[in-house]
Amino acid sequence: MAALQNPSRCVAGVVGVVTRYDGLHTPSETPPLTAINLHLEAVSTAASTCLLDQSEGRPSPRIVTSRVTEIILRASSV
C-alpha cells in the first residue's frame, strides 16, 4: 500500500487491491481495502472443539465446515 501511495505514481483506476483477510487494518488503509471475510473465528472455534473432542475420545466430525466466505467491497477495488 505504501508503494501505491507514492505521489510520483498514478495508480487511480489502474490498480485494485484485495486482501485475503478482513482484519482490523483493512478499513483504515488508504484507500480502505476490499477483503474476503473468511469467518476465521468461527473456523478456529469449530476446529478447536473438534480437536478437543477427538483427544478426549468423544465422537467428532472428520470434516468441519463454516459459513460461506463473503467479499467486503471497499474503495481499493471499486
Describe the protein in words.
With 78 residues, this protein is an alpha+beta fold. Helix content is 21%, strand content 12%. It has a 3-stranded mixed β-sheet, with no helix packed on it. The longest helix has 16 residues.
Summarize the entry for a quick read.
With 78 residues, this protein is α+β, with helices and mostly antiparallel strands. Helices cover 21% and strands 12% of the residues.
Query: What percent of residues adopt helix (DSSP H or I)?
Result: 10-25%
β-sheet strand percentage: 5-15%
Order of neighbouring strands in the sheet with most strands: 1-2-3
Largest sheet: 3 strands, mixed
Number of strands: 3
List the SSEs and their pairings:
Elements: E1 18-19, E2 34-37, H1 40-55, E3 70-72
Parallel strand pairs: 1-2
Antiparallel strand pairs: 2-3
Task: Provide keyphrases for this structure.
single chain, 78 residues, alpha+beta, three-stranded mixed β-sheet, 1 helix, 12% strand
